[in-house]
Design brief:
alpha+beta; Complement Module, domain 1; Rossmann fold; six-stranded mixed sheet; elongated; binds 2-acetamido-2-deoxy-beta-D-glucopyranose
């Protein structure tokens, strides 16, 4: 009996399931495809075409239980993208008219006499099948509301623009509508709802379009939620928040079609989104919900740490795709029901505060609901609980953004769920999740965020560009007759790079110094050495060369333009660092910063090395403090060069931080070209500079390269302690940064 059973089992294991749909039927003319699950029932083929083309009859096919692919009889082919045809244009004319409008075609608009043109004079058909720019409108300025315009591809009924008048739109055949079908001219001279647009089913929003539209809607939201917010250009000041009450609820689709990889990316996106929100100097509460057949909260609004962005990020990270087990349907309603439940709990807890709090919901989905029923029912319930009615001006209290990813979504469904507001976009349809991630990364690069110190793209999984990982590193070259010296520095503001004083001769000529930042080389306007830096000042104490106060600031001849590759690092005791350390309130002091960054006897830190010509590399070291630092002094005393120094504290003053050695870990040594570079304490994904690489006791490097052999046990590296040199930094940087007391 037993052997037979075993045989059957072996046979079962060997039997490779034969594909049930015919793989020969799937190739696409002019494009490429990928098959998931090898052609078994339930497997999917995804098509892609070159830019300016789209797959016809659809972006994907499923292997149905009948053993046939969807639309199997239609041969897949890449077709040329068209833009919608202009059907109606009011109070003017446009040219050139043709039957079809392909990518690159330009439409020109003119208004009749007496009408003023709003929007662009010409629009170009783009590769995603959308016309560039906004809707062009010819308005006679006579109506109570402005002419709401006719999107290309739409027809409009209604041409009176007085108060309470309505207009309705329809899209031409084959086009899908996003936005509002009906709009009404309201008392505030704006049209209700959102401007409609008509698109072909193959049209997706590009990451750039999403970044711009989402970012502007979001900032408008956040800024208007804080009446005390003052626009500041370069320097952000901390204020105690009174006005900024907001709940942010992120809803992630974890259904089967998403897959573990894309779910991982969705988690990354949530992180970048939270980072973006924190760039607004703003402290909302977060909730995160994952949904498949059921909704599972990842983080609740009622959690004690729902204001702590990092705690929320940790919870998102810890959440597993497999949490829904085999319950992998798409129950969008359940997720919104969960949202409703969270909000109603808030309402019970503190009804007054609840009604003063704005709510932003961000829903990411890759499919239409297939269970649980109509999700928009829950949107109505959410509006009810927030007391939002047509007539009470409370629309500001709810913004529902929906990101539909891929071609399996229902345009109608995502459009119905999303908020509709004048001059804002809440519904986005993107080709895939990578495009969405890109959109969020672009948002992190906008000017407001670029001012933030100590940011890096290290946390984003697949960065390609090393400069985005260490965007605050500057490379300094000093070219003297017959020799060239290299040092590192850190960008601390738009005009200043912090580095070591010993990189320069006391009579260095400014024109010999070049500073490379990103891919640009800058000249130097001024070089400031710390006023107490005096390399020969301790020869009488046996110290051949003193590195005390080894700090210099280079003022660049041209100010830097911050970008994803060029950003400032955080200097302790500045308002930027206060923000990065997530400290709140007016009374934050410099010693609060020091307590967070340099408390333990062993502090995890890092520096950036450049061993080969281009690649920068992170090196993790441990700063030894208090009793652990004593070993630094003891070990240094044992080195020949220091045997004759009566008091080692003359060489290693209290102004130095110490790393190196082999205890409790083998610290990588600093080498020649590392001098002047920052010693950094990473704090919750932000990079805080606590030291400047100054000198080492044993240099066993070959030029900039670390010796591959064992690190000498006595080897120690010393770094100028930034906290000890703040008065000097403050003096020189007072125009560029705000320091706390
Ligand atoms: C419009 O069409 C005319 C001829 O029909 C052509 O000469 C002209 O270049 C076209 N203009 C544009 C902007 O396409
Ligand atoms: C919504 O949530 C409540 C509370 O968990 C539950 O009792 C109810 O059945 C849910 N409704 C739907 C439609 O899922």
């Amino acid at each position: 009996m037993l052997p037979l059973l075993l045989l059957i089992q072996i046979a079962l294991c060997i039997a490779v399931p034969t594909p049930e749909c015919d793989l020969r039927k799937i190739p696409i003319t002019g494009g490429t495809y990928t098959v998931r699950d090898g052609g078994n029932v339930g497997s999917t083929v995804e098509y892609s075409c070159p830019p300016g083309m789209y797959p016809h009859p659809s972006f994907s096919r499923d292997c149905l239980y009948t053993g046939h692919w969807t639309d199997e009889d239609v041969k897949a082919q890449c077709r040329v993208v068209q833009c919608p045809r202009p059907e109606m244009f009011e109070n003017g004319h446009f040219y050139n008219r043709t039957q079809k409008y392909f990518v690159g075609h330009v439409l020109h608009f003119e208004c009749y006499g007496g009408f003023k043109m709003l929007g662009p004079e010409s629009r170009t058909c783009q590769a995603n099948g959308k016309w560039s720019g906004e809707v062009t409108i010819c308005d006679d300025q006579e109506g109570f509301c402005l002419n709401p315009g006719i999107p290309i591809g739409a027809t409009k009924v209604g041409s009176s623009y007085n108060i309470e008048q309505k207009v309705t739109y329809k899209c031409l055949k084959g086009l899908q509508m996003f936005g509002s079908e009906e709009r009404e001219c309201m008392e505030n001279k704006r049209w209700s709802g959102a401007e409609p647009s008509c698109r072909y089913p193959y049209t997706f929003d590009t990451p750039e379009e999403v970044a711009e539209a989402f970012s502007s809607s979001l900032s408008e939201n956040i800024e208007s939620s804080d009446p005390e917010r003052v626009e500041e250009d370069a320097i952000r000041k901390l204020r105690v928040k009174t006005g900024g009450l907001m709940n942010i609820i992120i809803i992630l689709d974890t259904s089967k079609s998403v897959g573990p990889k894309n779910f991982g990316i969705a988690k990354d996106i949530s992180e970048v989104f939270i980072e973006k929100i924190s760039s607004f100097d703003f402290n909302p509460r977060y909730a995160v919900i994952s949904y498949a057949s059921f909704a599972k909260p990842i983080a609740l609004l009622s959690d004690d740490d729902s204001v702590d962005a990092d705690a929320v990020i940790e919870k998102i990270k810890a959440f597993k795709y497999t949490a829904h087990a085999d319950k992998q349907g798409t129950n969008t309603r359940a997720a919104l029901n969960e949202t409703h439940n969270m909000l109603s709990l808030e309402n019970t807890r503190d009804p007054k505060k609840f009604l003063e709090t704005r709510n932003v919901i961000l829903l990411m989905t890759d499919g239409k609901h297939n269970m649980g029923g109509d999700p928009t029912v829950e949107i109505k319930r959410i509006r009810e609980i927030l007391n939002i009615r047509k007539d009470n001006n409370r629309e500001d209290y709810l913004d529902v953004y929906v990101f539909g990813l891929g071609s399996d979504i229902s345009e109608e469904e995502i459009n119905d769920i999303a908020s509709k507001k004048d001059n804002e976009k809440h519904v986005f349809r993107m080709e895939n999740i990578l495009d969405m991630k890109k959109a969020f990364e672009i948002m992190l690069d906008d000017t407001e965020v670029l001012q933030m110190c100590g940011l890096s793209k290290e946390r984003l999984a697949d960065y390609e560009d090393i400069e985005q990982v260490f965007p605050w590193i500057a490379k300094i070259t000093i070219t003297r007759p017959g020799s060239e010296e290299k040092c590192k520095g850190s960008i601390v503001s738009k005009s200043f790079v912090l580095t070591a004083a010993h990189c320069f001769h006391l009579d260095e000529l400014l024109h010999t110094i070049n500073v490379r930042v990103g891919d640009k080389v800058f000249r130097v306007k001024n070089l400031y050495r710390h006023s107490d830096y005096n390399p020969l000042g301790k020869t009488d104490k046996g110290v051949e060369k003193s590195y005390d106060y080894d700090m210099a600031l280079i003022e660049l001849a041209q100010t830097l333009e911050f970008s994803s590759k060029i950003r400032p690092i955080c200097l302790p005791c500045t308002t930027g660092a206060t923000w990065a350390l997530k400290l709140r309130g007016k009374s934050v002091t410099c010693s609060d910063h020091e307590k967070i960054l340099l408390t333990d006897e062993l502090v995890k830190a890092m520096f950036v090395a450049e061993e080969t010509d281009k690649a920068l590399e992170r090196k993790d070291v441990i700063i030894k403090r208090e009793s652990k630092r004593l070993a630094c002094l003891e070990d240094t005393k044992k080195i020949d060069k220091f045997k004759d120094v009566p008091d080692i504290k003359d060489a290693i003053t209290d102004n130095f931080l110490c790393t190196g050695g082999i205890n409790p870990q083998v610290d990588p040594q600093t080498c020649k070209g590392d001098s002047g570079g920052p010693v950094i304490v990473p704090y919750k994904h932000r990079y805080m500079q606590v030291g400047i690489i100054s000198w080492g006791t044993i240099i066993s490097c070959k030029g900039p390269r670390r010796d591959p052999g064992p690190v000498p046990a006595l080897s120690r590296d010393f770094h100028a302690d930034v906290f000890k040199m703040l008065p000097w930094l403050k003096e020189i940087l007072k125009e560029d940064l705000i320091f706390v007391d």
